[in-house]
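Course assignment 3, question 2. Fill in each field.
Student: A.L.
Task: Predict the tertiary structure for the chain below.
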Amino acid sequence: MKVNEISWSDVEQEVAQTAFQIAYEREINALIQEVRGNAAQVSQLEDIWCLHNFLSARRHEIDGKYDYNYSVLIFVFATLVKQGWLHLEELKGLDKDKIAKIGSLARM
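Answer field:
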C-alpha cells in the first residue's frame, strides 16, 4: 500500500490530531518569543520592514508545513519530528508501521 493511501482508525485520528496540535503550538509559541525579541530591537523603519519580511516568510513556511490531510500526514509528522517540534513518543497509539515510517523519514 502506498503511503498516501494509508487508512487511519478513529483512535489514530485522535492521536494524530493531538500530536499535530502539540507541534503546532510549540512552533507558534517559539515564533511568538522570537518575534518579541525581534520587535524589541526595532529602532528604525527598515527594522519594521525586515520584521514584516521575516513574518511573511515564516507564515508561508508554517502554512505549508501544517497540512492536516491524511494522505500526507506521515510526511508532515516526519518533518515535525526531524525539526524537533514533535517527538515519536507523542505518536504512541498510531500503528507501529506508521511510527516506523515516520521515524525512518525523519532520519533522512
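Instructor remarks: The chain has a mean pLDDT of 95. The two ends are 21 Å apart (CA to CA).
Grade: pending
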